[in-house]
Amino acid sequence: xxxxxxxxxxxxxxxxxxxxxxxxxxxxxxxxxxxxxxxxxxxxxxxxxxxxxxxxxxxxxxxxxxxxxxxxxxxxxxxxxxxxxxxxxxxxxxxxxxxxxxxxxxxxxxxxxxxxxxxxxxxxxxxxxxxxxxxxxxxxxxxxxxxxxxxxxxxxxxxxxxxxxxxxxxxxxxxxxxxxxxxxxxxxxxxxxxxxxxxxxxxxxxxxxxxxxxxxxxxxxxxxxxxxxxxxxxxxxxxxxxxxxxxxxxxxxxxxxxxxxxxxxxxxxxxxxxxxxxxxxxxxxxxxxxxxxxxxxxxxxxxxxxxxxxxxxxxxxxxxxxxxxxxxxxxxxxxxxxxxxxxxxxxxxxxxxxxxxxxxxxxxxxxxxxxxxxxxxxxxxxxxxxxxxxxxxxxxxxxxxxxxxxxxxx
Length: 410
Description:
five-stranded mixed beta sheet, single chain, mainly beta
């Protein structure tokens, strides 16, 4: 089945049953719309040691122990933020934290590593982190180097610049290097099966031991490799077609849907029932595929969003059926909660800002086994936040705003 859903929020849903407010009609009867409710945890995580601070935080993943992993960019910090690193030190504070940080469920920092080393090309600009079912850690990158043109400047003929970060890296949880797929500065574009081009994120399928790569900021595709050997398996573009690198021009709301992914292809997440959900960020859409690349359906989210787009990252709810999808919308400063079957937006929470529960460039999202949500923020957001799962409740608002803890002082 091929289907397309355009989603502007809850207005269409509520209009079905104005007499019952947050209800919908199922099999001729009114049924209450239910969705997960969350509250921000202003006390998570605990302060970092050693006067460490975070730069732009561009990835989050939760492992099998409910430990939370993030990756950040020390190079994004301003000189005035790292006065402890000068010689002599200008002041006691501060210094960049190591690039990869692991927290336990209580918010304690328990592990850290990351950076250049022998045998691999550490990204010029790291991007995305994934802990797979074996406990291994995958990292992408979107550094363009000093000579390359922007991916948006690809010519109509499909010519591409060979950008710097053309690989993904795989490490053990302690930071031991295991594998690199691709080589820095070597990409030939969206049909090169040996190199990536500014890959955004990796998702590993435990059933087939395959790594799905959202590729990315330079290419226009999903590409799949064997997660142990790095052997190429398959790749595809929007609607399951062969990708190309022609410049599609800027996104325009209301126009015919683009027949290829725009940059960046920002996530590719596999559900328990073997559906791959792809974040086509600048096109304001999710596309859904079978693992072999067969197109299933798509949905459009906040379609008036220009700039960096609305679909930055997604995560599934914790129960085995994964009934809900959570979308990080960095441009609008929201987390959207979708029914996964229909891809209808049920409700959203968040607001632009820097206080707990607000977002500035919410970039990445993950869930733990208890249903809690973890988000990270790029640009000057520079943080990770936890939103505590409080159960299913009736939907009463399209936009919940900041989900401050109930009963907490202000």
